[in-house]
Amino acid sequence: MDVTIHGLATALAPHDLPQDLVQARAEAILGPRYPQFARMISSFVQAGIERRRSVAPLEWFDAGTHGWAERNAIWHAGAVAMFRDAACGALAESGWRGDEVDVVVTVSSTGVATPTLEAVNWREMGFRQDVMRVPVFGLGCAGGASGLSIAAQLARGRPGAKVLLVVVEACTPSFRTDRLEKSDIIATILFGDGAAAACLSTDGAGTVTCTPGVQHIWPDTLGIMGWDVDDSGLGVVFDRSIPDFATRHMAEATEDALAAMGRSRAEFDRMLCHPGGAKVIVALETALGIEQGALDLERDVLREHGNMSAPTVLFVLDAARKAGRRGRMLMCALGPGFTASYVPLEIAA
Questions:
Q1: CB atoms < 10 A from the CB of 264, how many?
Q2: CA nearest to 336, candidates 211, 197, 231, 239
Q3: pLDDT at residue 1 is higher than 80
């Protein structure tokens, strides 16, 4: 049973971070403290990013060390607003009202909210008192694909139910100037803030359909990606081996995932990939036998928004449909675990 995506919308944080301005600010703040920083300056240009958005204004990053409470507070305020903007956009496109939603799946890994974001937005969104809330934490960059798979599975499990998926991440409050590890510099180069939302059900026709996908986890890879947690907040774990790992292992993982779904590569016209970074995109094209440069939408999204973690792959899906791309597509995203998440999609003519 296919699941229809009736509405899809994206939302961005309020503050613009042009990459050249971020580079200059990072050089002023981090350069004197991090001996290897000068050798990484070229990475700001090579990252393939022109601008990103942030829940915090640029001057916030000048204020020295921020504690966990302050970081999470600014994440919370930004995530609540982006949740609402993305969800309202998806509902408007689908023609649904908030009180018609039966299930809300909320995906986020960059901060902590209890009550969770859909509860904080409950009154403004007009959700019913009996709405089913499904908050999902810890999927990181794979959260957009895995969240879509979870939402599709819930829709299939309750035929006719209206399922709202909201994926929201605010990565920038976690930028660190105290640890000064290489992964912190890479985070400063790559990450931005954004949200995406989708309305799914088994009822009615639509141009985008999907079925629940699968995940592939590799053993002994917990240290590749994730968070370190200390008194100052969340510290990114982002191993430099990720592009090389993808080059060596993604082909086999993708074949295993397709076999688990009873599908083959020949059925799909295109991959829709999470653009973790410029090197990751090249690694995916190499590993999956895709012509170099073919993941053009992924590069466009990365250039305009940076890596927003989980919602980024849904930005790619939105770009595909708006660009008139049609056919069967296999969504793919990598995240902590270390895990690859896959979702079969079709965009109809």
A1: 10
A2: 239
A3: no
Reported as a single tens digit per residue, the pLDDT across 294-303 is 999 999 999 9
What pLDDT is stored for residue 44 in this prediction? 87
For 325, the 3-state DSSP assignment is coil
End-to-end CA distance of the chain: 20
Active site residues: 141
Annotation: CATH topology of 3-201 = Peroxisomal Thiolase; Chain A, domain 1 (3.40.47)
Sign of CA dihedral 51, 52, 55, 59: negative
Pairing of strands 270-273, 233-238: unpaired
| Spatial CA neighbour of 60 closest among 107, 13, 116 | 13
* The domains spanning 3-201 and 208-347 adopt the same CATH topology: yes
Mean residue pLDDT of the chain comes to 93
Could you give the CA distance from residue 75 to residue 49 in angstroms, rounded to a whole number? Answer: 22
User: Do residues 8 and 148 make contact, with C-beta atoms less than 8 angstroms apart?
Assistant: no
The residue ranges of every structural domain in the chain are 3-201, 208-347
- Is 200 within 8 Å of 5 (Cβ atoms)? yes
Report the 10 Å Cβ neighbour count for 36: 9
Segment 45-79, tens digit of pLDDT? 888 999 999 999 988 888 667 888 999 999 999 99
pTM of the model: 0.94
pLDDT tens profile 273-285:
999 999 999 999 9
In CATH terms, the fold of domain 208-347 is: Peroxisomal Thiolase; Chain A, domain 1 (3.40.47)
Residue 230, C-beta contacts closer than 8 angstroms, at least 6 positions apart: none
Alpha helix (H) ranges present in 95-207? 117-120, 122-125, 143-157, 182-190
Instruction: Report pLDDT digits (tens) over 311-333.
Output: 999 999 999 999 999 999 999 99
1 residue type, one letter:
M
